[in-house]
Write a structure and sequence with these properties.
With about 120 residues, the protein is mainly alpha-helical. The chain is built from 6 helices and 2 strands.
Length: about 120
């Protein structure tokens, strides 16, 4: 009898979990850590050309501003490293053409244009 109750409880829990998985909302496609099976397919064509560059620059600007802990409008190499901006950190000497120990977002943009 105990076995039958335990088996029924396991089956009921499994059915409940399966139903919860089906009822769970799908997450946006833009989330990189969402399993592919749970992503909502995009109805829009992927960005390309100038639009894609603008999106990338906007995201970089957001990350730059978030990394600017003292709100000075500039990043030090330590701020870039702490924020995970490895590209800025690794190329800091080349980006900091004024050699003042800090870079502006315009400096980063100019570096990217030069590297193009």
């Amino acid at each position: 009898m105990k076995f039958a109750i335990a088996a029924f409880a396991v089956l009921a829990a499994t059915a409940t979990m399966a139903q919860a998985a089906e009822d769970a909302p799908l997450l946006p496609r833009t989330e990189p850590y969402v399993p592919k099976a749970q992503r909502i397919p995009s109805r829009e064509a992927p960005a390309a050309g100038a639009e894609l560059r603008a999106q990338a620059m906007a995201r970089l600007r957001e990350r730059f501003d978030a990394a600017d802990s003292d709100q000075s409008g500039t990043l030090t190499q330590q701020e870039a490293a702490k924020a995970g901006l490895g590209y800025v950190e690794k190329n800091f000497e080349e980006i900091d053409r004024a050699h003042n120990g800090a870079v502006t977002f315009a400096d980063v943009q100019a570096f990217l244009r030069r590297r193009k």
